[in-house]
Amino acid sequence: GCKIKALRAKTNTYIKTPVRGEQPVFVVTGRREDVVAAKREIQSAAEHFSQIRAARKANAATGNVVTSSIGNTSHGPPSPNAPGHVTIKVRVPYRVVGLVVGPKGATIKRIQQQTNTYIVTPSRDKEPIFEVTGLQDNVERAREEIEGHIATRTGGTVDTNGDDSDYQSS
User: Where does this protein have compositionally biased stretches of type Acidic residues (predicted)?
Assistant: First the structure.
C-alpha cells in the first residue's frame, strides 16, 4: 500500500491495485513516459519479491538469511533467480531521503542504472533506510554513490556511516 502510494507520487501516475483473490493486474494511468516508469518499477518489484520468496523457500531447510547488512559478508545463499545477489541497508539522515530520491525519482533511478542494482526507497512513515539489491560489488558502488551524492549536495556535512570520514566538516 505505502509503496504504491510512494510510486504514485514518484511517477506522477494513478495506480489501481489488484484486489486480493482476483488477477494480479495493476492499472496505471498518466503520461506515457510516467506510465512506462511506473510499469518498470512494478515489474522490478514483483521480480524482487519473487526472488525473495524463492530464496526463503530455498533457505527454509538450512535456516540461512538472505539479507546482509553493510560490513556483514556472511549472507546465506542468494536466490536461485539471482546468483550472487545480496541486499544491503543504507541508512541516511531522514532529512536527505528526498535529496537521494531526486526529482521524480531521477537520482535514485540514475544510481540504479549506473550500478545495475535494485533500490527500494524508504516510505515516509518508515526508517530512512534504502535497501540495495544486486551483486556485492554493485551494491557497494551504489552505497558509495548514495553517500557521495549526499556529501556533494550538502557540502560534506552528512555522516552516513558513523566514522570520522573525510566528508565531515566542523
Answer: 161-170
* pLDDT means over runs of 10, the chain (170 residues): 80 84 84 89 81 69 44 35 80 91 90 91 86 92 94 72 42
Closest by Cα among 93, 132, 90 to 112 = 132
Stated pTM of the model: 0.48
**What pLDDT is recorded for position 169?**
42
Residue ranges of the domains in the chain?
2-153
pLDDT of residue 159: 53
- 3-class DSSP state for residue 49? helix
For residues 84 and 135, is the Cβ–Cβ distance under 8 A?
A: yes
CA pair distance 39, 55, nearest whole angstrom: 24
Q: Measure Cα distances from 41 to 82, 92, 156, 169 in Å.
A: 18, 22, 31, 37
One-letter amino acid for residue 134 of the chain: G
Helices (H), the chain: 2-11, 32-60, 97-101, 106-115, 136-153
- The answer for residues whose C-beta is within 8 angstroms of residue 18's C-beta and 6 or more apart is 24, 25, 26
What pLDDT does 90 receive?
93
The residue to which cell 551494491 is assigned:
139
Please give the Cα distance from 8 to 76 (Å, whole number): 34
